[in-house]
Amino acid sequence: KKTFEGDQVLRIVPKDEVQLSLIKDLEDMIELELDFWKDVTDVDTPVHIRVPSHGLQSTRMYLESQGIDYSVMIEDLQVILDEEQEEMDSAAR
Amino acid sequence: APRNTDNFDYSRYHTIEEIYSFQDMLVAENLGMVSKIVIGSSYQGRPLNVLKFSTGGSNRPAIWIDTGIHSREWVTQASGTWFAKKIVSSYGRDPALTAILDKMDIFLEIVTNPDGFYYTHNSNRMWRKTRKPNPGSSCVGVDPNRNWDAGFGGPGASNSPCSETFRGPRAHSESEVKSIVDFVKQHGNIKAFVSIHAYSQMLLYPYGYTRTPVQDQNELHALAKRAITDLASLYGTRYRYGSIINTIYQASGGTIDWTYNQGIKYSFTFELRDTGRYGFILPANQIIPTAQETWLALMAIMDHTLKNPY
Contacts of residue A77 in chain B, CB cutoff 8 Å? Predict the structure, then answer.
């Protein structure tokens, strides 16, 4: 079963067209294996990206070097998934 | 296990087996109104079940609703289950729903991508696509919302099997898509088609593959506005609305672009509730509020379809 220890979901709000374009460029960085939960659309519309733990440092460095602000929406995805599974197991019991 | 659909726990997430069992119970409890149609099977051989809600007649004008084509969007399958129960419990009580079912049939496919849904429960909670292998690639599956014959292969879909938006080798290559295509064509009298996704809080109409506005843009825009206004009346959840290409991005091969081009004027796609905190891991306590508010928007679309025959 695939697990997601250390994976984070980042929330990014592009401030202008330049940032929008720079965030779009992340989609082409295949090696980071980013999963766009909420895709890039417009300026001021949040983008949610699941970043595997192995790509966190590179993704953050990219965003910071381009001056793009971000926040962490989900700190550790597997923690949330474990809670979800526990809730399902509990309800089933 | 619940013995009937009254005891089914709508406030939690369920496995595919539990949803299949729910469907059978609903049919057994409502033999005069609900039947189960198997429109095909998934790549891995699971049945593609559609619940038909009908009060009689033959080949009546119909409304199609599907949930869960992107398997990880669990709140959609859960909402679909709630809708099914809501339809049978509202008939004869809610005048608007009763009027709709007295003239029209409703088809509801709760688990549109069963292989993917099973996979999210057992192997990868974040899985979105189908589970058909791609020859020559180690990456599995196709995005079933890029696989329709509407601008297929154009911008806004990937030709890489490893992409989350892989369009597939050809239009309708996925049995989960082809089965709906065949059903819609064979039926020939579907007047509204609503495909439900999660999450981003949007109600969208065609097109996604081209900037050319649909012929019915004004009517669809006004109807979308009314639907999201009704939706917001319950919990204040705010939706954006408009054409796919203008509201989100260009996407080719999408479901409702194909249905609109088939002549189904009232073609819409939803992106359901987003708390902004959990994404696809929406807590189970959000299921019923999400379904309740979405139902109001669905009623607006279904009521408009009933009152504006074409």
Answer: 281
